[in-house]
Amino acid sequence: xxxxxxxxxxxxxxxxxxxxxxxxxxxxxxxxxxxxxxxxxxxxxxxxxxxxxxxxxxxxxxxxxxxxxxxxxxxxxxxxxxxxxxxxxxxxxxxxxxxxxxxxxxxxxxxxxxxxxxxxxxxxxxxxxxxxxxxxxxxxxxxxxxxxxxxxxxxxxxxxxxxxxxxxxxxxxxxxxxxxxxxxxxxxxxxxxxxxxxxxxxxxxxxxxxxxxxxxxxxxxxxxxxxxxxxxxxxxxxxxxxxxxxxxxxxxxxxxxxxxxxxxxxxxxxxxxxxxxxxxxxxxxxxxxxxxxxxxxxxxxxxxxxxxxxxxxxxxxxxxxxxxxxx
Length: 327
Description:
The chain is an alpha+beta fold and 327 residues long. Helices cover 37% and strands 26% of the residues. It has ten helices and eleven strands. A six-stranded antiparallel barrel has the order 1-2-3-6-5-4. Helix 9 packs across helix 10 (298-320). The longest helix has 24 residues, at 112-135.
């Protein structure tokens, strides 16, 4: 395992991965009201895809956004890091929010010819993900088979947009680097990364556009859920914390994954010097684990995870005297 800065994603890379790993976000627009709504905001969840770094929304035809954007194209869009199954229950119980990306820009409707191009792009993306799924080996399918019934693939969640495209209005979210508007109108695009502790980090749009999302991002929600739904793999997370971080952990969840490694939430058994965090005798702490080599595909990620599990188990066996004796 590596531990230098090169093993950690930049904030821009985290933003790109979050956008590529989800399929639904919260769109907010300014309410259109002839009586002057004084800038009141309307928000709703919409499904989206990302093409060349820009989100494209599919908004139901009866949604208020379709009226609001006629008078004012300004909007904001928020996307959370995937938190399926047990992870969602954890966030609810702890009254916490996952890491997320908050964007501001212009919500622009597509012309009919551009709508067809967007639909074809989405169809190709879905087919590509389905093809990848059919070619995954045992190391991947073994994890995905543990997914809960509510954790559908991203491609399955987006299929409806292709099958019922006539029921939606398609928009492009412009993250323009050069605003043509006066500063007082506040139509300048921006990107903000909000970490799991609520800290905000402004991200340069040029850096966002220059980065590419990890190839495993579209499957991250399912991999996270498959690990968290498996008792065996949850126990392996405990071993990781003990062997690699020297931490005595009572419980653990896979929090996020990327090509360089993964983040684990561990319920740490308190030491005499540990401060009380207000959640009782245990303290939840985030641990970062990095791979020896970057995982350039889903198969490589799962293979290295299995190798770490085997290595951690051997280490624990040697600690307890169950392994081969060399003393």
